[in-house]
TrEMBL record:
Name the UniProt record assigns to this protein: Late embryogenesis abundant protein LEA-2 subgroup domain-containing protein
Late embryogenesis abundant protein LEA-2 subgroup domain ranges (all copies): 80-184, 291-380
GO biological process, one term: defense response to other organism
GO CC term (a single one): plasma membrane
Length: 415
């Protein structure tokens, strides 16, 4: 028969290690659910959105390249970009935002820095920066040929890019900097779609015209690399970390003030008046134990509730007894005398063999455990405490007229 390990409960127990791991998993799951719930509440309250950008106009004063004899590019343009913050409870700071034009993913103007600006709730901003190329900008040959072909065909597609940093403001909280990238595609007609033929090749009044669908501004693709929700999540994590640090500091202060110490327990005496195992593995027992439990704390009193005592042989419980609850004042000592008497079926051939071997040696290895729910008293305050677990592995002489005296044994205590 297989041996069944009993871990200390009188209603069908589970291993203490497995119970600890299960509680730890429950705590982690509860923490994750709490964080997700807070994020959901924040999202429902704020309904965060990315700012929307529009390219309202693009005026090209010059865009000239003459391959294959030359790949030098000369361009001057003015872009009118509008940004709207559609959030009802979130403000946006625009810091260090640069605007430039590019053709086929290659910049054709130098970046122009926009002024720092704050957008409040449902606010809108408009910028009209001038974009120019350097005098010595040289395009790759294939790109110069492609641009010349597009001008000849009558249509040129350029991109107006915004690249910079933003900060979010919710109430009085202001986030850190997050990268902002905006792409505004602009379709230009060349000479009203006729292409680059005539005396105005490369520029002139009305030579390049910005096309708007249905007389509306062109919507731009806005991509904050870290969105507002991410910023709020980071803020929430910072708050949780701050709370943990605060709790840790409070625990440190509590420790320095009260200097809590572990409970001390000792088995002073133990005697077996009956301890027999029948052929069908039925254990008849009568065990009396005297324990001393001491509270070494100078400023903390302890209430012991739901006190239960258990007796084990070869990891199998054979005895259980309830003890009266009690209170220990500071530096107090309490005597406990649990008594176990009855009959219990032990399982496993190995347990029976161990019993016979220890009976031959004249002494039995028995473990006595005490479990209690603590309440802590600090001054006039009473707060719930942990569950105390006291384990006392003792060696008890076999019942006999000339049995040797019991040796007092210290117990292990943990929470």
């Amino acid at each position: 028969m297989s041996k069944i390990k009993d871990c200390g409960g009188h209603k069908g127990c589970e291993c203490e290690k497995e119970a600890f791991h299960r509680k730890l998993c429950y705590a982690l799951v509860a923490l994750i659910l709490l964080v997700l719930f807070i994020i959901l509440i924040v999202w429902l309250a704020l309904r965060p959105h990315k700012p929307r950008f529009y390219l309202q106009d693009l005026t090209v004063l010059c865009l000239n390249v003459t391959p294959p004899s030359s790949a030098y590019l000369f361009t001057t343009m003015q872009a009118t970009v509008a940004a709207r913050n559609g959030n009802a409870r979130v403000g946006v700071y625009y810091d260090k935002v640069d605007v430039y034009a590019q053709y086929k993913d290659v910049p054709i103007t130098v970046p122009t820095r926009l002024p720092v600006e704050y957008q409040g709730h449902d606010d809108q901003s408009v910028w009209s920066p001038f974009l120019q190329s350097l005098d010595h900008v040289v395009l790759p040959p294939y790109l110069a040929v492609s641009l010349a072909q597009d001008e000849t065909a009558g249509y040129v597609l350029v991109d107006i890019r915004l690249d910079g940093w933003v900060r979010w403001k919710v109430g009085t909280w202001i986030s850190g900097h997050y990268h902002l990238r905006v792409n505004c595609p602009a379709l230009l007609t060349v000479n009203d779609g006729k292409g680059s033929y005539g005396v105005n090749t490369g520029g002139g009044d009305g030579y390049f015209r910005f096309q708007q669908a249905a007389a509306r501004a062109v919507s731009c693709l806005c991509c904050p690399c870290k969105c507002l929700a991410c910023g709020l999540f980071s803020c929430l994590c910072s708050i949780l970390i701050s709370l943990l640090v605060t709790v840790g500091l409070l625990a440190l202060v509590f420790y320095l003030i009260f200097r809590p110490h572990m409970i001390a327990a000792t088995v002073d005496s133990a005697a077996l008046t009956q301890f027999n195992l029948t052929s069908n593995s039925a254990l008849t027992y009568a065990l009396n134990v005297d324990l001393t439990v001491r509270n070494p704390n100078k400023r903390v009193g302890l209430y012991y509730d739901n006190v239960e005592s258990l007796a084990f042989f070869d990891s199998q419980r054979f005895g259980f007894a309830l003890l009266d609850p009690f209170y220990q004042s500071t530096e107090a000592t309490t005597k406990l005398s649990p008594s176990f008497k009855g009959q219990q079926l032990l399982e496993g051939d190995i347990t029976a063999a161990n019993f016979r071997s220890q009976e031959t040696n004249g002494k039995f290895d028995i473990e006595v455990k005490l479990n209690a729910k603590l309440r802590v008293k600090v001054w006039a305050f009473k707060v719930p405490g942990p569950k105390a677990k006291i384990s006392c592995p003792i060696t008890v002489p076999k019942p006999a007229p000339n049995a040797p005296a019991f040796q007092p044994t210290d117990c292990k205590v943990w929470f």
